[in-house]
Each structure stands twice: as C-alpha cells, then as structure tokens.
C-alpha cells in the first residue's frame, strides 16, 4: 500500500461499501472466547448497537455476520473492518492531519495495535488479557478519521472506545478527552464488565491501553528492574547489588504485555530468573524479541539448568512454557533456594483468560471458560490455593515474596488460600508497600516516558543523552534521601540503548521526579526548537505513578490513614492536567488489579519546540507530580512530607496543608 493509499484509507473512516472479508489469521495470538452472558433480548440489543455505526443499506449483510461473531467469540469485533495496511507507528509526517497534535495521537494509537506490541491485536486488546484501546474496528476507523480532520480548536470526546464526536474548544484545551469503564459504582463487578462490553457500551481500558500511551514491555521494565534490584538488595543484604556472589534466583509468571518485562528486568538486575508462561505464542514472541534468553518445556530439564546457572553465577532469564502452579510445586519439592518470588498473571481478569488452571491445557481452559464458567472458576480457585501453598513453603525457607500489583493476594484470599495473617492482613506485601511507595512514589519518582514521533533511532539516542545530562546535574545537589534513586536511574538511562528495549515506537521509560521530568522535557523542547530533534516528542507516563492512580492493593497500598480506598487524587489529577496543557487526558475504572478495584488516569503531551510547550511543561508536570506527593504527605508518609516541604521552599505560590502528628499516648488514653 502506498502512502497516498494509506492516507486515503484513514480519511474514509467507515467505507460506504463492504470491505472484503479477511481470513481469520491463526498465526496471531487471539483473545479467548468470552463467556455467553447476554440474555436473548440483550443479544439483539448488542447487534442493534453494533449496526448503528453503518448505513442502513449494509445492515442486511452485516447483521448475520456480527451475530455470528457474538455467538463464536462473545463479542462483536467487526473483523471485516480491520485495515489491510500494516499496523505500526509511522513518522508523524505520514499521517493525514490538520493538527500536528492529532497526528501524534494517531501514531500512538497505531503503536498500541502493532502486532509486535499488542497482546491480541485483532481483538484490539493491548495487554492484560482484556485491556482494550477500542471495542471494535468501526470505532478505530472513526477515531482515525476524526483525528485526520480535526483542528487545534476542537476536542474529540471518547466514551469507552466510542468517539462521541468533535466539539468546538480552544488551542490550550486537550485535543482528546478519554473515559474508559466509568460506570455507576454499584454496577462495577466483573460480570457487569462482561455484560456491558458484550453490549458494546463500555470497555476495560487497563491503564495505558485505553489511553494510547502503551510502549510495549519497556513501559514496565524500568519499574520491574528497580523492584527486583531493591528486593535483591533487601534479601542478599547487599546495598550496592552490583556484586554477583551469591546470585539470587527470582521466580515469577507471565510473559504477556506487561509481565513480559520480567526476564529482561532480571537480566539488568543481575539475577537468575524463571518466568512461567502457559501460552506458547506469548513466550515465543518474547524470545524472538530478545526479552528472554532461554525456552524450557520440561521441568526436569529446567531444574537442572537452574542449578547450573546458580552454580556458574550466570545471569540468565529462562521461560518455562507451562503452568505456573506446576513450577512452584516443583520448586517447593527441590533443594533449590528461591530468593525472590512474585506473580504477574492477569489476576485482575481471573475468569476470562487472566489465569489458567493447573492440570488443563491452554485450549481446554479456553473452551471451559466459555462453555462452563462456573466450573472454570472453581478450577482457578483450586489452582490459586495450590500455588499459595507452594509459595508459603518456599517463604518459610527464606524466600521474599511480593505481590506485583496484579491482584494475586486479593484473588488468592477470595479463593480461600492460606494467604492471610492472624490479624486479617496479607502474609506478603505489595511491592508498593515495601519498595515502590516509600522509596519512589513518596518522593515523586515515577514512570515518566517519551516517544520520538520522527520514528528515528537517532532521535531516541539524543533524548537519552539529554535525559542523562539532566539527571547527572540533578544528582550533584540532591538531598541524601533521593541520591540512591538518582544513581539507579542514571545507570538505567546510561545503559538503556545497550539493553535493546525498543519494541514498536522509538520510546523510552525513565523513573524521574518533578525536577527531573520538567528539566528533561524542557531540554527536549529546546532540541525540537533548534532542529537537533527532527520532530516533536510525545511526553507521558504510566498511570502507575505518584498521582495517577488510586488503588488500595497497589499504587496507594502504602497509604495508611484509611484513604487508600478514596479516588479523589486520580480524578483531581486528570482534571488538573486537562487545563494545564495536556494534549490528551484519560480517566479509567480498572487497571492493574481489576474493574471496580481502582481509578486511574493519564495524559499525553506533544512537545513541539514552542514557547507554549515550555509553559505547558512547567505548569502541567508540576501539578501532575506534586498532587500525589501532597496527598501522600497528608497521609503522614514521612518521605512525602520532606519532599513537599522542599518543593514549597522552591515555589513561593505553592502551599500544602501539612499534618500534625499526635502522640500515641493521647490516642490510647482517649479510648
């Protein structure tokens, strides 16, 4: 397809004639069939909802086709309308547009759906088993058409993948405002999502899936690296964690969209890692991309290879293609010391492909979850109980196990596993409680990221250099309590190019605080202005950040004043970003630990070298970080109190309400 044909296809949107029906591609990793949850009259409603995207003269042809999709897959994806052009991020100049900001968003959308990046690209699932960017291909086509037509004085409004329309606005307003899964709280159970998604009226946007900010496994690899690195320091009593004697063994599961970062993170953190993955296609994809070193299909052979790697002090990442319960139970039987353990199965989505029961093949599980969901649920719960039992045995021998924010502890407790202490709290910490919260979030460090819209690796290399210069300069005068974090982040960005992290767009992830993010962004803006960078840069972050997410079992699990179940921070954050210069904003129900368990939001900002971009950077990034630090300081988190006091000294117009501490004796005497 020529560039002109590609641009014409974008501009058409939904064609007036039927596109040719494409063959079902069995080589692609497809989403499992969803449960048959709709009543007969609701199925008619789902079909009626789907057909409203198309002119009346096409309804007779499309109705039986879409009804068959609903019967066969549990959803109406509108496969016929999947574009035939290659799905990937292109240089920004190749997109038809009237607004450069809109063209940047088109690039980000296509990157989310790149088969190298997306988990189930033909079903528009980006990661996490059900983390969708759109519900169907008609929505994709309409959104791309609107973005090609819009000006800098319009805003595209998105309702759970559906483009409501282009509305008049102004240049400093967001070009796109996204909501995903924002339902009435009493209707926020997993089956409510199944029903509303099958009807075509809501979707689970995960975090960066539905907000057009996913950058492949690199998006989580830095956070995973510093988590594993600091967990290893904790267990091995080695503050530097650059020594490799002895070498730790890290065991986990999942090689999908986000979990696929684990083996690469293990290598960077200098450990031996074993990651179980039930889906051979997912494991093979990460192996071919160089994100895991070895593939193992036999537990006997894997145990031998593990013992040899530990004896040789050889950093290596190994994928076990099989069920994670089998792996944990075998490790509990073997005389192998496991130092670090976690889990990254998609337990936010346990009944629809996020976790597969032991003793069943992948295909058997897929059939059962659709045909007999109640029995499938029982099998999942039994598997969780067995997995926890094996984890407990290894923990009693000294393994440090942590929940990686995938709802492992939550779902295990609901399954009746032996996961609770006598006082009613979990046996094991969330990684945010022990590591990410007190060491990073409380001080404003979080997963800042950027994408070079030129799609030129040379531009990405220059941004790495500029970011390194900023971080090294910040380190010179940094207070002692953040020097260690800066040292790790400087090492990360210095080595980023050598670690071959890019999958899809020319993107980078870097944990940075408010000062670092702002100065890095300003350096990028200057480089675009003077031509060193050949095209604008998109700034963003994971929603898994200082301010972006209220999630009592992950991002806000180290909040202990009772407000960890409140969502004011995430909602305030996206509102504040929207009028301080964000190019697009999003707010989601669900993400990480599941639908109904979290509210999270994010942003994207196009940095184009202008003075307006400089102002947006200073205003919006300041709010985007310090909103969360202020909330954490009010929760009496000491690191946040120190950080917010420093920020108030530097910013005369900034005033935050600080907590007063009361003596325990006074509280105890009152009751």
From TrEMBL:
The cofactor named in the record is: NAD(+)
Q: Which Pfam families would you find in this protein's record?
A: Urocanase (PF01175), Urocanase_C (PF17392), Urocanase_N (PF17391)
State the superkingdom.
Bacteria
- Broad enzyme group: lyase
What keywords were assigned to this record?
Answer: Cytoplasm, Histidine metabolism, Lyase, NAD
The Urocanase N-terminal domain covers 87-213
Give the enzyme's EC designation.
4.2.1.49
| Similarity annotation | Belongs to the urocanase family.
> Signal peptide position in this chain?
none
Domain Urocanase Rossmann-like spans what residues?
216-435
Q: What PANTHER family is this protein classified in? A: UROCANATE HYDRATASE
- The protein here is known as Urocanate hydratase
Pathway the protein acts in: Amino-acid degradation; L-histidine degradation into L-glutamate; N-formimidoyl-L-glutamate from L-histidine: step 2/3
Q: Which GO molecular function entries does the Swiss-Prot or TrEMBL record give?
A: urocanate hydratase activity
Residues given in the record as NAD(+) binding sites? 128-129, 206, 277, 404, 592
Q: Which reaction does it catalyse?
A: 4-imidazolone-5-propanoate = trans-urocanate + H2O
Purpose of the protein: Catalyzes the conversion of urocanate to 4-imidazolone-5-propionate.
Q: Which NCBIfam families does the entry mention?
A: hutU, PRK05414.1
Record note on cofactor: Binds 1 NAD(+) per subunit.
**What compartments host this protein?**
Cytoplasm
Q: Where is the Urocanase C-terminal domain?
A: 440-645
């Amino acid at each position: 397809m020529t560039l002109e044909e590609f641009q014409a296809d974008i501009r058409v949107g939904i064609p007036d004639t039927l596109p040719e029906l494409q063959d079902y591609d069995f080589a692609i990793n497809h989403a499992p069939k969803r449960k048959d949850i709709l009543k007969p009259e609701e199925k008619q409603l789902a079909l009626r909802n789907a057909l409203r995207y198309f002119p009346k003269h096409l309804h007779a042809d499309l109705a039986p086709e879409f009804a068959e999709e609903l019967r066969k897959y549990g959803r109406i994806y509108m496969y016929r309308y999947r574009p035939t052009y290659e799905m990937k991020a292109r240089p920004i100049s190749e997109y038809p547009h009237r607004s450069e900001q809109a063209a940047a968003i088109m690039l980000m959308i296509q990157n989310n759906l790149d088969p190298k990046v997306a988990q189930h690209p033909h079903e528009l699932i980006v990661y996490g088993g059900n983390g969708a960017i759109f519900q169907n291909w008609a929505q994709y086509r309409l959104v791309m058409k609107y973005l090609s037509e819009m000006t800098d004085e319009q805003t595209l409004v998105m309702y759970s993948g559906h483009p409501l329309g282009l509305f008049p606005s102004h240049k400093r307003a967001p070009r796109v405002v996204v909501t995903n899964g924002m339902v009435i709280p009493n209707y926020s159970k997993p089956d409510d999502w199944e029903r509303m998604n099958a009807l075509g009226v809501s979707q689970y946007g995960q975090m960066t899936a539905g907000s057009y900010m996913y950058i492949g496994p690199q998006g989580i690899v830095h956070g995973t690296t510093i988590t594993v690195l600091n967990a290893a320091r904790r267990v091995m009593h080695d503050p530097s964690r650059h020594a490799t004697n002895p070498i730790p063994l890290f065991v986990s599961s999942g090689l999908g969209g986000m979990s696929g970062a684990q083996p690469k993170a293990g290598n960077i953190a200098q450990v031996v890692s074993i990651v179980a993955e039930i889906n051979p296609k997912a494991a093979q994809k990460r192996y071919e991309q160089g994100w895991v070193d070895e593939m193992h299909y036999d537990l006997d052979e894997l145990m031998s290879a593990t013992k040899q790697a530990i004896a040789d002090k050889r950093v290596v990442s190994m994928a076990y293609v099989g069920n994670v319960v089998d792996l944990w139970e075998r490790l509990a039987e073997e005389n192998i010391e496991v130092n670090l353990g976690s889990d990254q199965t998609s337990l936010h989505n346990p009944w629809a492909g996020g976790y597969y029961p032991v003793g069943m093949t992948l295909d058997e599980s897929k059939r059962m979850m659709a045909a007999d969901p109640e029995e499938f649920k029982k099998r999942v719960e039994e598997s969780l109980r067995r997995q926890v039992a094996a984890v407990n045995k290894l923990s009693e021998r000294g393994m440090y196990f942590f929940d990686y924010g995938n709802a492992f502890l939550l779902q295990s407790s609901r399954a009746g596993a032996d996961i609770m202490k006598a006082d009613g709290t979990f046996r094991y910490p969330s990684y945010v409680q022990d590591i990410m919260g007190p060491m990073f979030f409380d001080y404003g460090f979080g997963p800042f990221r950027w994408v070079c819209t030129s799609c030129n690796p040379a531009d990405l290399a220059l941004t790495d250099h500029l970011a390194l210069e900023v971080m090294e300069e910040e380190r010179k005068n940094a207070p002692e309590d953040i020097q260690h974090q800066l040292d790790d982040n400087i090492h990360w960005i210095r080595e980023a190019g050598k670690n071959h992290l890019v999958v899809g767009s020319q993107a980078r992830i870097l944990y940075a605080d408010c000062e670092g993010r702002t100065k890095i962004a300003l350096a990028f803006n200057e480089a675009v202005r003077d031509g060193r960078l050949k095209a604008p840069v998109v700034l963003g972050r994971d929603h898994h950040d200082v301010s972006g997410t209220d999630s009592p079992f992950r991002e806000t699990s180290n909040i202990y004043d009772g407000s960890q179940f409140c969502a004011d921070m995430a909602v305030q954050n996206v509102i504040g970003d929207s009028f301080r210069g964000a190019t697009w904003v999003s707010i989601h129900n669900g993400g990480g630990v599941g639908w109904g368990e979290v509210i999270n939001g994010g942003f994207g900002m196009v940095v184009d070298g202008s003075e307006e971009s400089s102002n947006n950077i200073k205003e919006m990034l300041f709010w985007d970080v310090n909103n969360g630090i202020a909330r954490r300081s009010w929760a009496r988190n000491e690191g946040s109190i120190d950080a917010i006091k420093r920020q108030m000294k530097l910013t005369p117009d900034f005033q935050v309400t600080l907590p007063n501490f009361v003596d325990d004796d006074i509280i105890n005497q009152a009751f």
